Amino acid sequence: MSLTAPPAPRITYGAVLGSPYVARLLGGTLTGRLPNGMAPVAILLWATASGSSIAFGGLLSALYGLAAALAQPVKGRLMDRHGQTTVHLPAALLNSALLVALPLTGPYGGPGLATALVVVGGLTAPPLEAGLRALWPSVLPDPRLRHAALALDTGTQGLLYIVGPLLVAALSSAYNPAVALAVTATLGLVGTAAVALAPPSRRWRPVPSEDRGAAPVRRLASPGVALLFVSLTGIGFAIGAMNVWSVSMAEHYEQDMLAGIISAAFSTGSFVGGLIYGRRTWSGTANRRLAVATAAFLGGWLPLLALPAPYAATAAVAVPGAFLTIVVACAYVTTDALAPKGRTTEAYAWLILSIGAGQAAGTALAGRLAEQPLPSAALPAAGAAFALSVLLAARRHLSPTRPPQRGRHRRPLRGRHKTP
User: Fold this and answer.
1) Domain ranges of the chain
2) pLDDT tens-digit map of 349-396
3) What CATH fold (topology level) applies to the domain 216-401?
4) Which helix (H) or strand (E) holds 377?
5) Model's pTM, two decimal places?
């Protein structure tokens, strides 16, 4: 009689999406985050349609994205202290109201009022991404299901930046940019409400810190966490540089659609890579997989140094795109293991900010080098190389001193009870 244990059943995405609340949380988050891809484009189109210059419209668009990124850690900390619903719903209501008000008050208040509305609108964008990542341990106690859900969640993010701008362009063409802003606001509010009113989000509370005497800021900014976030700025840098490089490619070859096609290929690679990664259980620690995936991410950018033709370039960017989801998913798992109890959502928010800050830096530097083909094509690889170098140097700091916990967050129901 064989004593060998039968193999664990294969994880399918049907099983993940069929788990209680998963489809609602994932669908609501994706809907609520569509404004991340829609609002900057809609603001730019509204500004130019209202008679402002493209430069001013671009400034408003950039300010919205920057404000949304900078406010992430603050909103993450608020969720760790007060729960998700009390942060999500007020933020969504205010963000949606400001987006709707922008075309109504812009002509009367001038550039100053428009700038204020855009900045406050960005600051109040709901922190759905960090919130969802904090929910997975309580919604999916099985680590294998949680692994697949995280890969699916991460892999679909790139699609937001394809669908969102296309939807804004269609609405602005068929109606006007004010309608696009109104639809953006509505989607954000509906998606956020679907998440915030779901029982897992309403019941979610962080596990309080065991060491109440320690300084929380110091504990969050441990060497491992800090070095991980520094490395992720290199990942964001590569993405930002790629976006500008794709525009310069489109201008060089006089093919206006090329920039969108390259970005779509990168996002599609990310989606497919996430689907493949999430269907398997992988050996080794998360930080080791993170280093391997970052090395592959770097290798995927190297063909651009040969200055390939448009079709070859489009195919080439799908390779680093496929490894991007793995990098980000492993970064979240590593963050979960390193962050102190009661500060997980805030740590996730800093992770998001790190990638966003790197993306802004990559965009800025690539813009200055856009007229130089080889340096422009080399910047994504440079960002990936920086990320890999920091990860390799930080290996001993990335090993958690405590094991990742199963169901780290408790969910109070009729008072409080522990997550099973």
Assistant:
1) 16-144+157-206, 216-401
2) 999 999 988 888 888 888 888 889 999 999 999 999 999 999 999 988
3) Growth Hormone; Chain: A; (1.20.1250)
4) helix 373-393
5) 0.79
